[in-house]
Fold this protein.
Amino acid sequence: MTKKILNIALADDDKDDRLLFKKAMDNLNVDTELSLFSDGLQLIDYLRSLDVKLPQVIFLDLNMPEMNGMECLKEIRADRTFDNVAIAIYSTSSSEMDIEATFIHGANVYINKPDSFDKLKQAIAKVVRLNWQYHTSRLDRDNFLLRI
Amino acid sequence: MKIHVKFDVDSICAKVLEHQLIALGHDYNLGRTGEVELLNQLTEAQQEKLIASFAAEGIFIIDDSTSKLVQRIKDCIAEMICSDTEVRCYTTSTYLSEKLNYSYSHLSNIFSENTLSSIENFVILKKVDYAKRLITEEELSFSEIAYKLKYSSSSHLSAQFKKTTGLTPSTFQHLINKRKEVRLKMGSRT
């Protein structure tokens, strides 16, 4: 198996959170190409643009201006082009209602924004590794749910 | 009218494969999942044609022996987990090394180097994946599922499920059912 470059996208309106995420990603020791967006609209525009290399995983913040995470999730899941893209909600909210609603509308992963850099790294690593298994091992993608 | 269908992926794929082989006029034996023995010697042109017409159907020939072995390990693990009776008494290591004729440590190293996972973790992942399928598709109780998957009790299954997915089996079941309702309402997906 040759080393593949992993495409990841993150939409988060908080600049510090984006930087932290990028730093964690760089620390992972996996070849990744990370695309960053500050709101949902930008992300959707990017996904719909011609010649886009679809990300394997999209990390989505819930509270964003313009288009929030939930609207963005619904928009992506209404389009079958994106069926093989995993969506990880990445939010400070630990409300059970939010968590349930995102899973029901097609999120694969729910991550409570961790309180330390190490935990963030571990969470991202877990998502990336598990997603890789879904790509390569004939696991049922419809049943890919993970809460961290 | 809307109906729901379930696919037996292995048998569909085997049929597509046979269809191609017959169309190309080759004599063959189908082995276990993904193994084809061609009974006549192929010329280079025939080989190219085979590769191309397979590729058109989304079938790719694995020629690198390491990824072939990794795939066979995964197939064996799936077989071990999903089969009902005969392999119940084996441990994973004995089962794999007897089936594949390599020492377990060799298999284990090859697997870890190529998959971002250990065999042990993969077995757990595959078991949980199978449990998810049983939870969503069959009308079995959690203790029946635990028995089928060779867990000592349903609380053991539940603990491993929670550790792997962050959700309990019943929360998972609830979410998947709700998701199906939402999709039905939206009407655009199954």
Summary: Residues 117-136 of chain A form the longest helix (20 residues). Chain A has five helices and six strands. The mean pLDDT of chain A is 91.
